[in-house]
Structure prediction request, 471 residues.
Amino acid sequence: MVTTATTCAPLIEKHTIGYVPPEDRHGKTRDLFTLWFGGNIAPLPIVTGALGVQMFHLNLVWGIVAILVGHLVGGVLMALHSAQGPQMGIPQMIQSRAQFGSLGALLVVLIAGIMYIGFFASNIVLAGKSLHGVVDSVPVPVGIVIGALGSGIIGIIGYRFIHVLNRIGTWVLGAGIVLGFGYIFTHVQTADFLTRGSFNISGWLATVSLAALWQIAFAPYVSDYSRYLPANVPVAATFWTTYLGTVLGSSLSFIFGAVAVLATPVGMDTMDAVKLATGSIGPLMLVLFLLSVISHNALNLYGAVLSLITLIQTFAYRWIPTAKSRAILSIIILAACCFAAVGASANFIGHFVDMVLVLLVVLVPWTAINLIDFYAIHKGKYDINSIFKVDGGIYGRYNPQALLAYAIGIVVQIPFMNTPLYVGPISEHINGADLSWLVGLLITSPLYYWLANRDTAYKRRLSTGKLANSI
Prediction:
């Protein structure tokens, strides 16, 4: 199905957080498959996927099962957020004002921005290490700066260029990872490839959670990359192309990490294991992963900038951010991340994974509230004008029902948490498995639906507004 409204969309994106009008809509739903498939064939998901056998001591079969279950479940939430983009025509984070109010949404926007910056910084460290692995004469700090500059250029050019690169990357990286699997399976270097590790319920649940949380981590910005599609694109088409792309791409990367680690001696760093396990094609794999990191990391910089613009515009509501504003903020964030990454500790990525696990505790109830509000309460119909008003228009500065459900959604997760900052009693009782995300979803979703439907004053305000996705 062709869903292109404009055949000559500019390469350099002119919009930031504003509504994308119909005349500027372009693209096809299949672009979402290539974006999320190609974007997930990268070192960070490979390193994360290896944890199932490295840290949680699962064997290959049970590790693969846990990875698939986690991505299949988490991908549903991620793809439901993606399907909001064409209907709303605005970035995901600014849309949160319709649920939380113009000021009530600030906390979630801030947390999402911090997470994007953390992703960006950790990925430029991986880029630096990958470049050093390919060319020994390039020091890691220099590689970090080169990787950051590459991602910065892509992020500044914006939406359309990101999609173009990932269309190419899907074919190149897809072929590369299949080739890598083939080489590893025919050159296994360990006798315990199939027998190392075993099934244990806590490790299995932990790996499921890790995979599901990987998908949920995309939720705050996934619809940013579907918002330019025409508004008449079927929700089902947006959902399925996103879902299949993200689940297939991330599952392949997670499993690749587990396979590489099991095919090499115990105790090796994951990316070193990948290089050793892929033997003669190892340098080629490192080059592909380096290009993947640079391309995919542009999404993190792009998301961080949109979050920062949203925060600033909340108070400077007369400010109309332009492509120039986006470029300046991109350079500032890029420079700060390079400075932090060059001086980072050797275990920077490990610390980052720990940080994401903490931040996701507060993002999970946001996901629940956003999806229930969009699909069950408003059914995709919002007053876009109100979302951009300083007082929140018909949505107000604060929505007490959303904030109450959000706070309760965080509190109920505490006993089930397993983070570097705190291990809950229930998680401790089940050998460290973190089920907080599942509890947060199951409690917050019906609670917010019930609170929102009880608030007659809020519904009266909404009924006086023009609930249409236009501006």
